[in-house]
């Protein structure tokens, strides 16, 4: 009986130690997001690129800023790309499909579009949506 109790207790201790080691992962190094990039640039083919790094300094996801680049050609959104950020990869992967919601739309139509956040990545989603909203507003005012 003592032997069974000893083995059970030993196994329990080993499992607890193993579980504790797995939860103590090294912290990810934070990436410093440059906020001095030009907001609006123009490519050779006429595509205007809006970078929200400087425009949306106060817009935060779960961890930090979630800047995007909005590519606009002939007053239509070509694509939206997430820039490097400090959000968890899992949450960015969940929220990234939102960025396709504006593709192919005229800027006015894209500005009026209501996009819902992704459940499970709400903070990241809302930050991406706000970055796109402010980027489109900036483009509309400065074109």
In short:
The protein is α+β, with helices and mostly antiparallel strands and 143 residues long. It is built from 4 helices and 4 strands.
Please, could you describe this protein's structure?
By secondary structure, the chain is α+β, with helices and mostly antiparallel strands. It is built from four helices and four strands. The chain starts with a helix and ends with a helix. The longest helix has 22 residues, at 2-23. The chain has helices spanning 2-23, 89-95, 107-112, 122-142, and strands spanning 40-42, 48-51, 68-73, 76-82.
Average pLDDT level: 88
User: What is the straight-line distance between the termini?
Assistant: 82 Å
Low-confidence stretches: none
Described by the principal axes of the CA atoms, the overall outline is: elongated
Range of helix content = 25-40%
From the alpha-carbon coordinates, what is the Rg to the nearest angstrom?
A: 22 Å
Give the helix/strand class: alpha+beta
Q: If helices are DSSP runs of H or I spanning 4 or more residues, what is the number of helices? A: 4
Task: Describe the strand arrangement of the main beta sheet, using strand numbers.
Answer: 1-2-3-4
Q: Total strand count, please?
A: 4
Q: What order do the SSEs take from the amino end to the carboxyl end, as H and E?
A: HEEEEHHH
Largest sheet: 4 strands, antiparallel
């Amino acid at each position: 009986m003592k032997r069974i109790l000893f083995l059970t207790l030993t196994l329990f201790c080993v499992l607890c130690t193993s579980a504790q080691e797995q939860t103590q992962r090294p912290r990810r190094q934070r990436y410093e997001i440059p906020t001095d990039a030009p907001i609006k640039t123009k490519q050779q083919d006429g595509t205007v690129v809006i970078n929200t790094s400087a425009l949306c300094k106060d817009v935060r996801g779960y961890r930090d800023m979630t800047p995007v680049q909005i590519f606009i050609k002939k007053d239509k959104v070509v694509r939206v790309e997430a820039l490097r950020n400090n959000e968890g990869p899992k949450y960015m992967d969940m929220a990234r499909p939102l960025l396709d919601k504006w593709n192919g739309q005229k800027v006015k139509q894209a500005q009026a579009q209501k996009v819902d956040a992704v459940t499970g990545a709400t903070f990241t989603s809302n930050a991406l949506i706000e970055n796109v909203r402010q980027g489109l507003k900036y483009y509309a005012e400065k074109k």
